[in-house]
Amino acid sequence: MLKMCSYGHCLNFSSSRGAHMSQFEIGVNTAMFDGLDNDVAFSTIQKAGFRYVELAYNQGYVGDMPPELFSAENARHISGLLEKYQLKTRSFGATMNMGAVDAVAQFTRRIHFAHLIGAKWINICVGRQQDRQQIITNLKQLAPIAADNGCVICLENGGDPNYDVFSLADDGAALLDAVDHPAVSVNVDAGNIVSLCPDVDPIEQAIAMLPYAQHCHLKDLEVIDGEVHFTPIGYGQLNYVPMIGLLEAKNIPCSLEIPLRMHRQRDSYPLRGDAPIDPARSLEVLIQSRRTLEKWLG
Hints:
Blueprint: E1 12-17, E2 20-29, H1 38-47, E3 52-56, H2 72-84, E4 88-93, H3 103-117, E5 121-124, H4 132-148, E6 152-156, H5 169-179, E7 184-189, H6 190-196, H7 202-209, E8 215-218, E9 220-224, E10 227-231, H8 241-250, E11 254-256, E12 262-264, E13 270-272, H9 279-297
Parallel strand pairs: 2-3, 2-11, 3-4, 4-5, 5-6, 6-7, 7-8, 8-11
Antiparallel strand pairs: 1-2, 9-10, 12-13
């Protein structure tokens, strides 16, 4: 059964399989509100009919990442906004270079912040292939810290060469084997495969990641003159229909990640626009995406 949602209410899909009830919940990543106050972002997400928020604190994608973002004070601010708009959070976008010298200290702050706001899954593109061994070493140190804080570090397949240590399904499986800790899993992103590995079937690869994934980003896109531009779900070139049912069956939480302010250039690197996107446009895109998902799951 699909629980249909009217404007301003939660998007919550539930299905019955005999005596088993599973919930397929979809949230919204705040990357589409890059440059705007979180009050505007949360208000728009609530109006569009969603209930879950994934903060996008992604290094290199949404502006500066000052240490204050990960403070207890900001956690209290975010928690207040969640309460104000009757929203919840359970995942947190925290992409950064896990091969950096101070990566363990940097990411430990992110883990503590995720714990304070109630986010279990921390989604992160981790770095470059050339830093693979250091990335693994750092993840081994961070995994117990994540576990102690009730969090899971979800390694996300990257969308540009800065994050090519995990490009395809086999890369992710190999990283999980190397780290070997239950607090490290995978966040699947089919859209990232389009830019970093354009000759591969992105949905096929994304489905191959699902057996060892705990989270998923849903984004749609069009490739125009070799550049990737993001669209509402169902309005681009990715056919998620074969994948959506598997996500629902596995009860894998998802967030719509539609970074409208940026596009990917021919070399796959992101380019941010000069100004934030009008929240009215973001609201329209979210409602269009919600209606597509309702149709697919109806």
